[in-house]
């Protein structure tokens, strides 16, 4: 995936671009810039050194530019249309059909495709805004683009169709639009996070959202709190979750926009198999409860690295879903292929990486639309996986007649409440930092939960191991009495995910044994539980039922993060781990 950065200002914006590259310090090593150069539009390519050095650009009066930063060199400099420049990122699922419709090769880049589509509409007499709206109606997938037309030199248009984009005001009348929350927070004084479907005009004057009927709305642009600079990608990605989830909620809460071909198959599905590893495996485990409860389907969850040695027998009505943030994890690719060899009839890739290997092997692709995830730890991509699996589960429930209309509406309503609940959970960071102060030096930790919150506990323990290097183990709380309780004493704290639901009383009973053995208890709960000696409670937001695992996951991400910070660990690149590289898009 690429990072997009666009600048427009009365003064030369190249030095600002150079500053951006230092802030991003991204491992993407190819920078393509389309820029104004005196009265010309030129395109330049730079191969970046690692670690990123300050780039010295040729002297120019460049008052607008659109740059993309990616892992792979873009195809040789394309012929630029002198009046219209488009730089795009994402995956367009009907790319080939659209390319044929505008008579360009199907191997054309997404930027070239959108440019050709806009030009086709412009040539038929449409204004740029009309062309953008028409083009947006045709594009399906997960796309964002920024465009500039010479006739309106003082403006640019940013379009968000799934892939996150932010618009910001900098000092000196500079306006920036980019895909990185870290960058915008550091560079801009005021920021607007674009919603999916937004068309925003920025440049001279106040940035405005342009509605499809041409009406302009000046953007609400809250000031950035500069004292809250983001020291690590992991924190940035944890904090981005209200926005990344809001993008998905918008896409799916009103009228399901699951790919049509997949929607057509849902009614005939009789079983679900989920394949994944690491954090994606925990998402699969949480979702297995949803597929049972909301869709009434039997579910198997396979750990990718184990699955290839199993003699699985998918039947003709099975839906196999391979889940992988990167779409490149070798174990998950092998597990999917194993299921296909064994006859899996319908396969889905759920990934954050359009164009990844996994997406080339399946019948259907579901994207998590979370933007590039730089930290090795999966955070925003994981909660997006959870949300997409929830959408799939209740869509299956609806298609199979398991859910009533009212239940489907309630499921959608719950989605609408999610981004706010996640934002409220992030507000608990002070309490969680206090816990981290008490926990980060412990030798061993238990994390427990029941039902959907048992895999959440697994994910929490996994994160505590992965970034905080703590020996944390997860158990279903009902299992404590069947062995693990022998290890509990004043040296072994127990972290508890305790949503106030049907399992809450059982969990409180399970905890009596922990206190009886002098184990210290740290409870995350929306219930009215008091902190007393030996029991510390952090009050979680209320109002979610099925989606509650997502906010508990976020709370545990923060706990692992702050424990890692206090231990002085390398947060974004934990020892012995590397993030699977995502194949860059054409
Ligand atoms: C591991 C990472 O190597 O891969 C985990 O340490 C990650 O954080 C796991 O969850 C699976 O990755 P993916 O890309 O297949 O979801």
TrEMBL record:
It comes from the Bacteria. It is an enzyme of class 2 (transferase). It catalyses: D-fructose 6-phosphate + L-glutamine = D-glucosamine 6-phosphate + L-glutamate. It holds the Pfam family SIS. Its EC number is 2.6.1.16. Keywords: Glutamine amidotransferase, Repeat. This is Glutamine--fructose-6-phosphate aminotransferase [isomerizing]. The lineage of its organism: Bacteria, Pseudomonadati, Pseudomonadota, Betaproteobacteria, Neisseriales.
């Amino acid at each position: 995936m690429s990072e997009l950065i666009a600048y427009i200002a009365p003064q030369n914006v190249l030095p600002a671009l150079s500053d951006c590259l230092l802030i991003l310090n991204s491992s993407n090593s190819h920078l393509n810039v389309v820029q104004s150069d005196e009265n010309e539009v030129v395109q330049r390519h730079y191969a970046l050194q690692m670690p990123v050095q300050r780039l010295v650009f040729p002297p120019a009066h460049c008052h607008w530019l659109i740059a993309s930063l990616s892992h792979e060199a873009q195809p040789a400099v394309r012929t630029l249309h002198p009046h219209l420049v488009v730089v795009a990122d994402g995956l367009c699922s009907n790319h080939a059909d659209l390319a044929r419709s505008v008579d360009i090769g199907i191997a054309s880049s997404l930027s070239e495709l959108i440019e050709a589509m806009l030009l086709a509409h412009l040539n038929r007499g449409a204004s740029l805004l009309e062309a953008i709206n028409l083009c947006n109606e045709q594009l399906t997938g997960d796309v964002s683009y920024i465009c500039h037309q010479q006739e309106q030199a003082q403006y640019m248009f940013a379009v968000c169709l799934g892939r996150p984009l932010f618009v910001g005001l900098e000092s000196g009348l500079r306006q920036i639009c980019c895909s990185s929350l870290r960058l915008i927070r550091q560079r801009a004084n005021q920021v607007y996070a674009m919603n999916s479907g937004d068309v925003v005009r920025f440049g001279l004057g106040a940035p405005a959202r342009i509605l499809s009927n041409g009406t302009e709305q000046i953007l609400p642009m809250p000031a950035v709190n500069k004292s809250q600079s983001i020291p690590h990608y992991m924190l940035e990605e944890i904090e981005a979750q209200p926005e990344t989830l809001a993008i998905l909620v918008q896409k799916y809460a009103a009228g399901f926009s699951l790919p049509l071909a997949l929607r057509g198959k849902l009614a005939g599905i009789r079983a679900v198999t989920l394949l994944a590893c690491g954090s994606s495996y925990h998402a699969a485990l949480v979702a297995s409860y949803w597929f049972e409860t909301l869709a009434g389907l039997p579910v198997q969850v396979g750990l990718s690295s184990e699955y290839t040695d199993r003699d699985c027998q998918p039947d003709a009505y099975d839906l196999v879903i391979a889940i992988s943030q990167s779409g490149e994890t070798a174990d998950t690719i092998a597990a999917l292929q194993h299921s296909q060899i064994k006859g899996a009839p319908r396969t889905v890739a759920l990934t954050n990486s359009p164009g990844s290997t996994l997406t080339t092997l399946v019948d259907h692709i579901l994207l998590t639309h979370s933007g590039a995830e730089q930290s090795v730890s999966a955070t925003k991509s994981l909660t997006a996986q959870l949300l997409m699996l929830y959408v799939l589960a209740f869509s299956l429930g609806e298609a199979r007649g398991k859910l009533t209309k009212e239940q489907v509406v309630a499921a959608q309503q719950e989605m609408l409440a999610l981004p706010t609940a996640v934002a409220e959970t992030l507000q608990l960071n002070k309490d969680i930092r206090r816990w981290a102060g008490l926990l980060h030096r412990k030798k061993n930790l238990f994390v427990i939960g029941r039902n959907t919150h048992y895999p959440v506990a697994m994910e929490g323990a996994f994160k505590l191991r992965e970034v905080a290097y703590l020996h944390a183990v997860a158990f279903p709380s009902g299992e404590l009495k069947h062995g693990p309780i022998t290890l509990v004493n004043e040296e072994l704290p127990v972290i508890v995910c305790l949503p106030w639901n049907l399992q809450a009383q059982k969990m409180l009973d399970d905890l009596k044994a922990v206190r009886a053995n002098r184990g210290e208890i740290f409870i995350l709960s929306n219930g009215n539980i008091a902190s007393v000696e030996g029991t510390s409670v952090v009050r979680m937001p209320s109002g979610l039922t099925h989606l509650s695992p997502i906010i508990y996951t976020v709370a545990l991400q923060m706990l692992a993060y702050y424990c890692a910070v206090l231990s002085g660990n390398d947060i974004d690149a934990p020892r012995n781990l590397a993030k699977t590289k995502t194949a860059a898009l054409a």
